[in-house]
UniProtKB/TrEMBL annotation:
One of its GO terms (biological process) is peroxisome fission. This is PX11C protein. The gene is Pex11g. GO terms for cellular component: peroxisomal membrane. It comes from the Eukaryota. PANTHER family: PEROXISOMAL BIOGENESIS FACTOR 11, PEROXISOMAL MEMBRANE PROTEIN 11C. Keywords: Membrane, Peroxisome. Its main location: membrane.
Length: 261
């Protein structure tokens, strides 16, 4: 962690971390928030939630059939800037995704074959998504001289494919968990074991809701003519994104997992 400058403008004494000391003295709630914002994933979740919240508010306040101006226009502009910020930060996500994909490989041998297959395809779609988005971003920035539209479309299609595969995987896992619950009902399994399975079911339900909201937006961003592509008003895009973001923050905080039960 970088050392914060002293109030006088001079560097603090060697070995003294002003930021860490401040966090240690802060209330636990504020300390947890600061700790989350100091991580890449935690900051991305916060930026994502704020991005969609601004789009929701700006879209809701904007007048129909009119170009947004004033407060609605400002909120939508903030949303666009935050979205661009996240796009730039994702330039560094390829290696993390590659590491995860390599670690997972073809999946554990004791895992359900269908779940493994869906997971591998989902990882592949995610891995291909990043370079496509990077090319689209570079084209818009004038770094490479290619048309960006087809690359944005391809990256969005890969994202949508990943979300659909994720939903199918969660549905398969839920089917297995519900079968396990029925077995527990007729066996002498401990209440703690049943509680853990129910927590897993809850986590998968939340994952499905989050992925469905994102998939709805992903389809909206595809070229017009495909399902409801291009038909969502800004407030609806913001609402779906906010729901997905809040679910993600809730899950990251320990909610909806077996550890939280």
């Amino acid at each position: 962690m970088a050392t914060a400058p002293a109030p006088s403008g001079r560097a603090p004494a060697p070995g003294r971390d002003v930021t860490s000391g401040s966090v240690a003295m802060a209330p636990s709630g504020l300390g947890s928030l600061v700790a989350a914002l100091e991580t890449h994933r935690g900051r991305d979740r916060a930026v994502r939630a704020l991005c969609y919240a601004c789009q929701l508010a700006g879209g809701a306040l904007a007048r129909p059939q009119a170009s947004p101006s004033g407060l609605p226009g400002s909120l939508l502009a903030v949303s666009a800037q935050l979205s661009a910020c996240r796009t730039v930060l994702r330039l560094f996500d390829d290696l993390a995704m590659l590491s995860y994909s390599c670690d997972y490989g073809l999946g554990p041998k004791d895992e359900d074959c269908l779940v493994r297959g869906l997971s591998v395809l989902c990882n592949l779609a995610n891995q291909l998504y990043y370079p496509c988005e990077h090319v689209a971003w570079a084209a818009d920035a004038g770094i490479v001289h290619v048309g960006s539209r087809k690359w944005w479309t391809l990256s969005t299609a890969l994202w949508a494919s990943s979300l659909l595969l994720s939903i199918l995987r969660s549905l398969r896992i839920m089917f297995q968990l519900r079968r396990k619950l029925r077995q527990h009902k007729w066996s002498a399994s401990s209440p703690r074991s049943q509680k853990a399975v129910k927590a897993q079911v809850k986590a998968e339900v939340l994952s499905i809701l989050s992925a469905t909201a994102d998939l709805s937006n992903a389809i909206h961003w595809l070229p017009p003519g495909f399902l409801w592509a291009g038909r969502f008003p800004p407030w609806l895009v913001g609402l779906l994104g906010t729901i997905s973001s809040l679910i993600g923050i809730y899950q990251a905080s320990g909610g909806g997992t077996s550890e939280a039960v």
